[in-house]
Amino acid sequence: MSTRWYPIYQRGNPQLRVFLPNFWMKLVRPEGNQQHNKVTFHCSMEMTKHDVKNYLEKIYNVPVADVKTKIAMGRFRKDIGQGYVIKDDDVKFAYVTLPKDMKFKFPNIFEKKKGDGDDDMKSLDEAKKSFKNYIERNKDRSDVPSWFSI
């Protein structure tokens, strides 16, 4: 069992416990063009600049030159049904500067390979053929209304 908050003391034999950090960080794509050694994160509101630096250096072994943080206020909007005002949660941004010799490139997870398009077209053609065969087999059924045919 793991917990993010320090557990209450229990008498007796201490149990095996896993303690996880109370902080989280999420890598986000920058709004505009950024320098090659800058990285943007969403992070926990409780994190300070020193916490961000220690988090990246100790857990991920990433050398950090500088950290700047910004708290962006959540949007205010009106509820569609009831008409009352809703405020989105505030978000804390951490702008991390890496050393000058390091470059960061945002990972492209959904990059298409050259052969993927051909396989998609083949499977689409196969699905169309099987659907036409299905329609041909079932066009003379009496329990299907006549307006259902294609």
Apparent shape: elongated
Classification by helices and strands = alpha+beta
Mean pLDDT: 84
Main pleated sheet = 4 strands, antiparallel
Strand content: 15-25%
Please tell me how large the radius of gyration is.
Answer: 27 Å
Tell me briefly what this model is.
The chain is α+β, with helices and mostly antiparallel strands and 150 residues long.
What does this structure look like?
Strand 6 and strand 7 form a beta hairpin. The chain is built from two helices and eight strands; from the N terminus they run E-E-E-E-H-E-E-E-E-H. The longest helix has 23 residues, at 116-138. The chain has helices at 49-59, 116-138; strands at residues 2-3, 18-19, 25-28, 38-43, 66-72, 76-78, 85-87, 91-97.
Q: Secondary structure elements and their pairing?
A:
Layout: E1 2-3, E2 18-19, E3 25-28, E4 38-43, H1 49-59, E5 66-72, E6 76-78, E7 85-87, E8 91-97, H2 116-138
Parallel strand pairs: 1-2
Antiparallel strand pairs: 3-4, 4-8, 5-8, 6-7
Descriptors for this entry?
23% helix, single chain, 150 residues, alpha+beta, 8 strands, four-stranded antiparallel β-sheet, two-stranded parallel sheet
